[in-house]
Design goal:
166 residues; six-stranded parallel β-sheet; 0% helix; eight-stranded parallel β-sheet; globular; mainly beta
Length: 166
């Protein structure tokens, strides 16, 4: 998707892993997704490469990368100054590696990569970066054991508004 403007929607763009070939990421170039009542970009276990794009002003997260996946953002702005009569508690950027299935149990996938290079992540909240990760748990002989999982996220030459100290 190139040179597109998505505005005034409930959800700007919803990307899922269904039918996705591992070698075919969604390419976003010079895209504006703004003034959205819920999430601007929602991605679930998918693959996205974005260049020079704007994700701004959503009632929830401007960008929500959930259930793991592979993401690369270059020269992008993820901003959220949403102020349409209600308080926004969700940060502008949300990274997560799980969701709850119909039995209310977490389904976890690897966050293969979430790279933000030369990006701005900013907004009206004190913390505009949300990291919500669950460890994988294996059941073995009626015991639960934590298992290693892939969790790669990086911010290179980027400006972030966050209260996280770790």
């Amino acid at each position: 998707i190139s040179y597109a403007s998505i505005r005034n929607a409930t959800i700007g763009l919803n990307v899922d892993s269904v039918g996705l070939d591992g070698d075919a990421p969604l390419l976003l170039s010079n895209v504006k997704i703004e003034h959205i009542s819920k999430q601007g970009l929602v991605a679930q276990a998918s693959s996205i490469i974005a260049h020079n794009s704007l994700f701004a002003d959503a009632g929830s997260a401007s960008v929500a990368l959930t259930y793991g996946g592979h993401y690369e953002f270059y020269h992008c702005t993820i901003a959220n100054f949403f102020n349409w009569g209600k308080y926004r508690s969700i940060p502008a950027l949300l990274l997560s590696n799980y969701y709850f299935n119909k039995d209310n149990k977490p389904e976890i996938r690897d966050m293969e990569e979430a790279l933000f290079s030369n990006c701005i992540i900013w907004g009206s909240n004190t913390n505009e970066l949300g990291l919500d990760f669950e460890p994988k748990v294996k059941e073995r002989n009626d015991k639960e054991e934590k298992n290693e999982f892939l969790l790669n996220y990086r911010f290179e030459n980027s400006l972030l508004r966050t209260s996280l100290s770790e």
